[in-house]
Amino acid sequence: MLSRVADNLYWMSRYIERAEGMARMIQVHQSQALEYAQNDDQLEEFWQPVLQSICAENVHPFEDGVRKIGKTLIFSSSYENSIQSCISLARENARMVRDQLSEELWLELNNIFLFFRNGDAEDIYNQGSDLLLDRISRFSLIFQGLADATIPHAEGWRFHSLGKYLERADQTSRMLDTLNLRKKEASRADLMSVLRCCIALSAFRQQFRGNLSLQNVGSFLLFSEDFPRSIRFCVRAIDHSLHAISGVPAGTFSNEAERLTGSTLAMVNFTNWNQVDSKGLHKTLDELQATLIDIGQRVFETYVLLPSEIKSLGEKSSTQFSQAQQQQ
Amino acid sequence: MSTTSQFKGYTTDNFFDEMFYDGKKLQARAHYEKIFQRIEHLTETEISDRRQQADSSFLEHGITFTVYGDEGGTERIFPFDLIPRVIPDSEWRIVEDGLRQRIIALNLFLNDIYHGRKILKDGIIPEEIVNSSKNFRPEMVGFDPPQGVYAHICGTDLIRDDQGSYLVLEDNARCPSGASYLLENREIMKRAFPQTFGGLSVRAVEAYPDLLLQTLEYLSPRKSQKPVCVLLTPGVYNSAYFEHTFLARQMGIEIVEGKDLIAIDSCIYMRTTRGLVQVDVIYRRLDDDFLDPLVFREESMLGVSGLMDAYLKGNVALANAVGTGVADDKVTYAYVPDMIKYYLDQEPILSNVPTYLCWRDSDRAHVLENLDNLVVKAANESGGYGMLIGNQSTVKEREEFARLIKAHPREYIAQPIVSLSRHPTFCEDGIAGRHVDLRPFILYGEDVEIVPGGLTRVALKKGSLVVNSSQGGGSKDTWVLRDF
Amino acid sequence: MRLYVFHRTSYRYPSPVKHSFNELRLYPLSNDWQKCISTTLSILPICRPQSYLDLNGNIVHFFELPDEHQQLVIEARSVIETRSRVDFENFPYGVTLSKLSKMEGVPEYRDYLQSSTYVEINPEVWRMAVDLLSGSTDVFQTAYQVMEFIYQNFEYCKSTTTVDTHANEVLRIRRGVCQDFAHAALALCRCLGIPARYVSGYFFDSTRDRRMRGAEASHAWIEVMVSGHGWFGLDPTNNRVVDDTYVTLGTGRDYRDVAPVTGSYYGPRPNELEVTVRIKRTDD
């Protein structure tokens, strides 16, 4: 498949997953803020660590007043990770690879794009932010479901999955990180919020019977073997996708992205909470995020080279090609 | 049940009306009878339902085009009108023969001017016309394009005058667009009026993508294997981007941008996740100027460096060939009837609109004196840009054009204002007559193929003669009826 | 029936040739059974074809290419409306062979009763013809038997004969393609005194499984004169009476009179000759 197409599918999927994460993050924290914060200062103090975790503290999210922070995070055109931006970018990527998408998938995405563009989204937000945020989360879930159900599980779909799980791992790690960024020790409400952001509340309860502690929440979101938003689960999915793309057997690697993923997978497979605790949760998460970014970069280098880079490889590529011809 | 006729108050205003032969009694032509009856008794709700269905279907499917120089919404749908244009097969056959004759002559002309220049040497066409054409490509001189054909895909615009005769308005031999609308309009009409459609024997158009792919594959320099064809698009911001993806998907070929392609050792490869794959045929929807920054415009970011080299060495085929723009220069247009006589020893089946060439002193004098009765067009523009319609222009506009014509006589032509035929069209206050043209799509691969009908474009503004999508035009489905 | 025919002939020479002069018989005739709606000829390298009517009433185009060239491509595209010329319920039986002797004197038919370039009237052929008569005295029935005889006893196979193979040779080896079958049929008919002429043209295979021979090619068959009824087409290659699926380009004494493309030039033999014929029905 065309390198650019792989890249577009990857980013389309990432942006949609990001929009979903943002929607849930806003929803959960808005609701928590209602109980927590009485005045604007308290509100700001409450939101600060959240914004820091998603790297949004520099985009003036309070420019319209702290009470409108939700709206800013949803609609701002100056904030590149606002939900509206994510959806536009996802659609832009999709538009470039429409021929690779099923009609159903495209219609779903285009509809939500039009819903934002024609102002309906804002109208609904004004009626009640939950109505809109629910709709966005549901859109993403439907979209990901349609992707699994209506496009061939071939190379393009693998890149799509890769984008989805890389973004999801990133989101989970960031939500977990908000606990470190708060000035006070994480409260029960904070822990609940993190679980809610990851739709992990009921899964968590099943495993820990409501024994809510930083250790349990952290272990669950980092190491759960079967919860689809845990870091471990996501990294395993990334590893799987990468090997399906390259055709190299699991446990070995043929490029830097696979090596990094394999070593991260080993880390989450063979680490326990005590080790995380002694290293520090924030440091662990920081390193993890850095590795995830690196994996994304390496995937790009391996499969989506820039033309200028190819030119320097020109000679090598052409000899490779003539060898391939001789086998015919 | 008595409903008022949707055609109440409809007048033909002495124009040639596609549907009615008698404007006063509103008598429909035989081939329009069924459509007329169906539309006449539609209720307002039925109409608005169908209209909404069509509009939302276009928007949801992203069937949009982009308007240049328009800051608002960059994407718009191409307005679609629910009343189909109907052409009896007996009429269409003549058009088809005429188009075939024309494309063959144009291709022979292109071959000639890039080789022996016989038609110029014999004095049929002045040599300076070709030499001064902006779209003449000296790189192509002496080069034999694959299979000897230059314009593989041609969209020729036809109009009908007040007698109903078909006239050729212009040939689009570079990158004509609109074929996707031809296909989508048909799908929508089948859904909107299944019974009416089913009751008439309408000739199918859905073969277009297959025929296009055959045309492309025929050009492949590597005969031994299944050709790798790609569609080269300027990218997602191009006005016809939807069409590019649509056609690529219908043909099952990759849609690529310049940056996806790379030239190595005079061959073209596309960059895939599995490495480089050699490309045989490029259906390029990019003008010559942007194809290769090494040869044409240096600053082009859309093209592929080294593409021309690979092309001239015969390692990759381009459709259309480079340099076909000479054939759709509006000054060249005036000579097409002469080409047909010269190369084919035949009379043209389809006539041209009479054309004044401003570089001829006598013609220019006439044009300048009669600006208010003429349409003036820039020789090398398309899409309805750079045009003056005399009787609808202001004094200031006419003065501006007079200045331009005097400064660059080679760049302008003028034609009498042809009263284009009109067609009943849904407008804000009910059905009214609007001017239409017809763009059939001609494919020239191993043989010439023309899908029946084409894209009917309609000027939605009252009295307007400009049908281009970028200038407020809309489109209709075109039905060629087998039984008439 | 409305038919569209695309006929492409392409010569490629190993080195440049010049002073090429060519004649084309690629314009379908208009007569009682067919109407040529349009024909467009295009030739590369660029040249200006001119035309005349030959002695057999066929339209001939000719052109000259004085300059050096290495490839010659001739394309003809025609739209033809055909009408069925025979009533299959009512063949023109009843004209006896004995009446034929009168025709020898009619100048119009004389050419079609004599030997020509590829067809010879000789005792050997005459004996073969008399053998397959088996007592028939009817003109149409006899011609039909000639067609059947060839269809049943001759093997259709490409590349055993050439464009110059004589009817005598064909009758001996009993193998060949449509041109050879037509020449053989002409020889047999003429020996029996039936005026017979060679027809060049195309044939649209309307059978579902496309099992007919010569459909995607330049085809040939014969026409015999049944006095009082006119010329009737018989296709020995497919054992068929000619109907509206056939398009006539021209008629003559034999292949030489109606060869679709002939020419001469200075230079080496072509190393590639490619002929493509596509025929489509456009009214169904």
Fold and architecture overview:
The complex is a heterotrimer of chains A (328), B (484) and C (284). Chain A is an all-alpha fold. Chain A is built from 16 helices and no strands. Chain A is globular, with a radius of gyration of 21 Å. Chain B has 484 residues and is an alpha+beta fold. The longest helix of chain B is centred in the first third of the chain and has 25 residues. Chain C is an alpha+beta fold. Chain C contains six helices and 14 strands. In chain C, the strands form three sheets. In chain C, strands 1, 2, 3, 4, 5, 13 and 14 form a seven-stranded antiparallel sheet that branches. A five-stranded antiparallel sheet of chain C has the order 11-10-9-8-12. In chain C, helix 2 crosses helix 5, helix 3 packs antiparallel against helix 5 and helix 4 crosses helix 5. The mean pLDDT of chain C is 90. At the A-B interface, helix 1, helix 4, helix 5 and helix 16 of A face helix 9, strand 9, strand 11 and strand 12 of B.
Annotate the secondary structure layout:
The complex is a heterotrimer of chains A (328), B (484) and C (284).
Chain A: H1 3-36, H2 40-53, H3 69-75, H4 83-96, H5 103-117, H6 120-127, H7 129-150, H8 155-181, H9 188-197, H10 201-208, H11 214-223, H12 231-246, H13 256-269, H14 273-279, H15 281-303, H16 307-326
Helix pairs in contact in A: 1-4, 1-7, 1-8, 1-9, 2-8, 4-5, 5-7, 6-7, 8-9, 8-12, 8-15, 12-13, 13-15
Chain B: E1 20-22, E2 27-28, H1 33-40, H2 44-60, E3 64-66, E4 75-77, E5 80-88, H3 89-113, H4 118-121, H5 127-131, E6 153-160, E7 166-172, H6 179-192, H7 194-199, H8 208-217, E8 229-232, H9 241-251, E9 254-256, E10 261-264, E11 267-272, E12 275-278, E13 281-284, H10 288-291, H11 307-312, E14 317-319, H12 325-328, H13 330-333, H14 336-344, E15 351-352, E16 356-357, H15 361-369, E17 374-378, E18 387-389, H16 395-407, E19 412-416, E20 422-427, E21 430-439, E22 441-444, E23 448-450, E24 455-459, E25 473-481
Parallel strand pairs in B: 5-25, 7-15, 8-9, 8-13, 13-14
Antiparallel strand pairs in B: 1-2, 3-4, 6-7, 6-22, 10-11, 11-12, 16-19, 17-18, 17-19, 20-21, 21-24, 22-23, 24-25
Chain C: E1 2-24, E2 34-44, E3 50-53, E4 59-65, E5 69-82, H1 107-110, H2 123-133, H3 139-153, E6 155-156, H4 167-173, E7 175-176, H5 178-191, E8 196-203, E9 219-226, E10 230-235, E11 240-241, E12 246-252, H6 255-258, E13 261-266, E14 272-281
Parallel strand pairs in C: 6-7
Antiparallel strand pairs in C: 1-4, 1-5, 1-13, 1-14, 2-5, 3-4, 8-9, 8-12, 9-10, 10-11
Helix pairs in contact in C: 2-5, 3-5, 4-5
